[in-house]
Amino acid sequence: MEKTGKIFFRWLGVAGIELEAGNCVLIIDPYFTRVPFYKMWIGKVIPESKLISQHIKHCDFILVTHSHIDHLMDVPDIVNNTECRVYGSNNTCSLLHSCKIAKGYVYRIKVADILNLGKFKIEVLFAKHRNVLGFSAGHLGYPLKPPFTARQYRMDNCFAFHISVNGISFMTDPGINNFSKCFKKADVLFISASYSMEYYKLLFDSIKPKILVPLHWDNFFLPLSVALRPYFKAPSRKFPFFGKINLNEFSKVIKKIDPDLKILIPEIFKSYDIVNILN
């Protein structure tokens, strides 16, 4: 496919991605509120509306990989501010409807769906989320009324997205130990920085990325008003059992696998010309 036109990428923090092609803006998993850790267990959580509007001025489409708080919570504000359309799982749609987002802005999706959203073509793929203590997956059993508790942002399905625009392809993180073989080749792969070397090898053999972008490494319980700090890795079966994500170590592991693979460690909110980086 011929590469035509500029494509700009911004990392929005946590798993948040913004892609802009022409005047068309696609956002995935935006999260700016960053509720403190104790609020994951106590009380209701309320989006930081002023902060959200400060960082997102325009949006046409939002994709939600799953309905955990750090992927969905800030979406209703963006829809209200920009009148964009949102695509996600049953739980995602139910929570948005509970927030009084009209049906015309909310669309249920499933694995294997193909979406043509402005300049973007999206294929919905299966993704596998690691187990999170205290946050069991499942369907929402009853209607909810906002504001929600953090645990009411319950995940049902988890998706990855293969995105094509202007001859460039992107893929979001397929998740931990996902051996579904549903991967597609992509020029740019957004990925966790805490997987094993063996799993990275499997992913790279299938996806064959040219640029690797680590996401979801920052401590999302700290507000944006302080410097970004790495979050803890999932517990390991090998010593050391606990530790924080180290982007330097991540880069070393990747270079051992493929010395020619470009690694883009983005600054938060900085705009990157993806076509220029690929060339």
Topology:
Elements: E1 8-11, E2 17-21, E3 24-28, H1 49-55, E4 61-63, H2 69-72, H3 75-82, E5 85-88, H4 90-98, E6 106-108, E7 114-117, E8 120-126, E9 159-165, E10 168-171, E11 188-192, H5 197-207, E12 211-215, H6 247-257, E13 262-263, E14 271-273, H7 274-278
| CATH fold naming | Metallo-beta-lactamase, Chain A
> Could you tell me how far the N terminus lies from the C terminus, measured between alpha carbons in angstroms?
15 Å
Return residue spans where pLDDT drops below 50 for at least 5 consecutive residues. Answer: none
Shape: globular
Indicate the structural class. alpha/beta
Strands side by side in the biggest sheet: 6-5-4-3-2-1-14
Beta-strand portion reads 15-25%
Query: Which architecture per CATH?
Result: 4-Layer Sandwich
CATH class: Alpha Beta
CATH superfamily: Ribonuclease Z/Hydroxyacylglutathione hydrolase-like
- Using the CA coordinates, give the radius of gyration: 18 Å
Most strands sheet: 7 strands, mixed
Extended strand count: 14
Total count of domains: 1
How much helix, percentage-wise, in residues?
A: 10-25%
Tell me the series of helices and strands, N- to C-terminal.
Answer: EEEHEHHEHEEEEEEHEHEEH
Number of helices: 7
